[in-house]
Backbone:
C-alpha cells in the first residue's frame, strides 16, 4: 500500500489499510484482540483490531493513554499499548516495548517473514485522520513525536507468552471512551473542589492567626496601661 510524503530512511507519514494474519476484509461484528504484557510488576494491556474496519474505530475511540504501533512502510496490524494514567510516552519500559513491536511484526504479512524491519510508534493523540484517507489509513500531526525502533527478528518465546493471554472481545469502544472521559471530568471536579476547600481552610487559618495577634497585642497594651494606673508616685507620701 502506498504512503504519502515518504522519505527514504524516515518513518512513513501515513499507512494504507492494514491486514492481520487472519486476513479478514470485513467482519459482521467488530472484534478486538487483547493481550497482557506481564514482564513488569504492573501488567500492561496491548490490543489490536481484527482488520482494517476495527482499526477505524480504534483510531476514533482511542484514549490519551494509548500508544500506536505499526510496521514502517509495510502493511500490518495497528497495535495499541495502554499506558497508566499520568505515565508519559517516553517512559515505556523496554521489555514492554519489545512485546509491542514483536506483536506488530508478527501481524504483518510481509514483516513477519522479514528480518531487520522498523516499527514506528507514537501517542494516539498524534494520529491524524482526514476524509480523503482510505479505511484504516492514518497520518501524523507532528512527525517529531513519531519514534522508530529496529526489530532484528521474530522472538517466538515472546509471541507464545503473549498468545497465552489473548482475549477476543466485542467491546463498545464508544461507550468505554465516554465512560473514561466522564470519570476524568469527575476527577477534575473533585480536584477543583478539594483545592477550593484547602484555600478556604488556609484563609480561615490566616484570619485566626491575625485575630490571635491582634488579641495578644491588645492584651499587652491593656496590661501596660493597668500597671501604670496602679503605680505609686513618691509625692503621695509627702
Residues:
Amino acid at each position: 500500500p502506498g504512503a504519502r510524503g515518504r522519505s527514504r530512511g524516515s518513518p512513513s507519514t501515513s499507512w494504507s489499510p492494514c491486514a492481520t494474519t487472519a486476513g479478514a476484509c470485513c467482519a459482521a461484528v467488530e472484534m478486538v484482540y487483547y493481550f497482557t504484557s506481564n514482564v513488569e510488576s504492573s501488567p500492561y494491556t496491548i490490543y489490536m483490531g481484527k482488520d482494517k474496519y476495527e482499526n477505524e474505530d480504534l483510531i476514533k475511540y482511542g484514549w490519551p493513554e494509548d500508544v500506536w504501533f505499526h510496521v514502517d512502510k509495510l502493511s500490518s496490524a495497528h497495535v495499541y499499548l495502554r499506558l497508566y494514567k499520568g505515565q508519559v510516552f517516553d517512559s515505556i519500559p523496554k521489555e514492554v516495548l519489545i512485546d509491542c513491536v514483536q506483536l506488530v511484526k508478527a501481524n504483518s504479512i510481509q514483516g513477519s517473514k522479514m528480518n531487520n524491519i522498523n516499527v514506528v510508534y507514537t501517542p494516539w493523540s498524534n494520529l491524524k485522520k482526514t476524509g480523503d484517507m482510505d479505511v484504516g489509513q492514518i497520518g501524523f500531526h507532528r512527525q517529531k513525536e513519531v519514534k522508530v525502533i529496529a526489530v532484528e527478528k521474530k522472538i517466538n518465546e515472546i509471541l507464545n507468552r503473549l498468545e497465552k493471554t489473548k482475549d477476543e472481545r466485542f467491546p463498545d469502544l464508544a461507550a468505554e471512551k465516554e465512560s473514561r472521559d466522564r470519570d476524568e471530568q469527575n476527577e477534575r471536579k473533585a480536584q477543583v473542589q478539594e483545592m477550593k476547600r484547602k484555600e478556604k481552610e488556609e484563609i480561615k487559618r490566616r484570619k485566626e492567626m491575625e485575630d490571635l495577634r491582634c488579641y495578644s497585642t491588645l492584651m499587652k497594651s491593656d496590661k501596660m496601661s493597668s500597671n501604670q494606673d496602679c503605680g505609686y508616685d513618691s509625692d503621695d507620701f509627702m
